[in-house]
Amino acid sequence: MAELKEIIKKFVVLQKYDEEIQFLEEEINYIPVEIQKQQELQLQKQHEVEQEKEEIKNLQVQLKNKDLDLQSVGQQIKKHTQELNTVKTNEQYRALLTEIEKLNQQKDTIETEILELMEKQDSLKKQIAEIEKNFSFEQTEIKQKIDQLTKRKQELEQQLEQKKNQREEFVQQIDKKYLSIYEHVHKNRDSVMSAVVQTPDGYNCGVCNMRLTEQEINDIKKYNDFILCSSCSRILYITDDLQQDTE
């Protein structure tokens, strides 16, 4: 009886190690996911800047094309103006004037479009300057977060290694035949909890809340053998029994 109680006490301590190890492993596994999120955010911000710069390039191409159009219209106006001095009939003269007027209207339209494009370009340049300023700040912030996460991961890995070493030292105190029972129950549970605290007042399983029979309660108190919950198959013990032994 006393021997089994001592084993269960050690199971409780061992379980605490396993809980801490699982917590550390989960936190370590979470960090690369968070780092990836930060890296994706970094790429997204960079893509936004590149998109704005690409729009500037498109505007520059449009401006260049409009300048070419303006030059072409100007040359046509100059040509037709010179032709006014060489025509021989009033009909030809009026036709040239009409064509020159149309070309002047085109010229006005193109000049207006060029001004609008230049204004848009100036506005976009200011916008890009602001975006790049924010981008630089955000990149620094993201890098700091990634560095912090990387450092945190290294610290947690050191803690995990230390905790595993402590666990390894502790299990040397437990007979292998008992340890194998704990390991079997532990590995077959969704949770790390393999030794389960049963509430002393309600006599229910402390995890699945399954009501224990009087026979099960009596068998637990005898501590002649490990009693498992009939529902979740965890090892059961009475909290007060272990506490009384330590008082």
Which terms would index this structure?
mainly alpha; two-stranded parallel sheet; 5 helices; 247 residues; 2 strands; Helix Hairpins; 2 domains
Give an overview of the whole structure.
This protein is rod-shaped. The chain is mainly α. It contains five helices and two strands, in the order αααβαβα. α4 (214-222) links the parallel β1 and β2 (235-238). The longest helix is centred in the N-terminal third of the chain and has 82 residues, at 2-83. It has a two-stranded parallel ribbon with strand order 1-2. Helices cover 78% and strands 3% of the residues. The chain has two domains: 24-171, Helix Hairpins, CATH 1.10.287.1490; 176-246, no CATH class.
Quickly describe the structure.
With 247 residues, the protein is mainly alpha-helical. The protein has helices spanning 2-83, 90-171, 176-187, 214-222, 239-246; strands spanning 195-198, 235-238. It starts with a helix and ends with a helix.
CATH topology of the largest domain: Helix Hairpins
Category from helices, strands and their pairing: mainly alpha
CATH architecture heading of the largest domain:
Orthogonal Bundle
Fraction of residues in H or I helices: over 70%
Strand order of the largest sheet: 1-2
Mean pLDDT: 88
The SSE order reads HHHEHEH
Sequence stretches where pLDDT stays below 50 over 5 or more residues: none
Count of helical stretches: 5
Describe the oligomeric state of these chains in a short phrase: single chain
Could you give the distance between the termini?
Answer: 18 Å
How many strand segments?
A: 2
Round the Cα radius of gyration to an integer and report it. 41 Å
The main β sheet shows up as: 2 strands, parallel
**At the first level of CATH, what is the class of the largest domain?**
Mainly Alpha
